Amino acid sequence: xxxxxxxxxxxxxxxxxxxxxxxxxxxxxxxxxxxxxxxxxxxxxxxxxxxxxxxxxxxxxxxxxxxxxxxxxxxxxxxxxxxxxxxxxxxxxxxxxxxxxxxxxxxxxxxxxxxxxxxxxxxxxxxxxxxxxxxxxxxxxxxxxxxxxxxxxxxxxxxxxxxx
Length: 164
Ligand SMILES: [Ca+2]
Ligand SMILES: [Ca+2]
Ligand SMILES: [Ca+2]
Fold this sequence. Notes:
The protein is 2% helix and 34% strand. The chain contains 1 helix and 8 strands, in the order E-E-E-E-E-E-H-E-E. It has one helix at residues 119-122, and strands at 29-32, 41-46, 59-66, 69-78, 98-102, 111-115, 126-132, 135-144.
């Protein structure tokens, strides 16, 4: 294992997408073991990512930890346009402005929570991604907003801050 710092960008081999000015790769970060292999993985928010020509629709990337440390190998990227993910990537959603890896069901694999505070003109929203032996998957992803938990409708930036 190297003790030297490594720099990972969207231009790193294995990381989906290409590095574009304004993507804000690393705007939000969270560490957790998504696949239960004993190595911490890192969720990276990319809220300025353009998706299908939609400015700042946003993305979330999961980088895999390994015996060699954090690498681009096996990295995954998710947007609201990824098959299985509810919603649509729209301009300025800023999906990925907040990310959190947390083992919400105590099976020793961390699920991914992604916030998009600007979803639906600032109503906001939060997405929950399940995980398995091969890590985070879009299959079975769910989302909810302030209205689904009894909160206010309209401008509330739901999901701007994730803690836990
Ligand atoms: Ca891991
Ligand atoms: Ca959307
Ligand atoms: Ca879990």
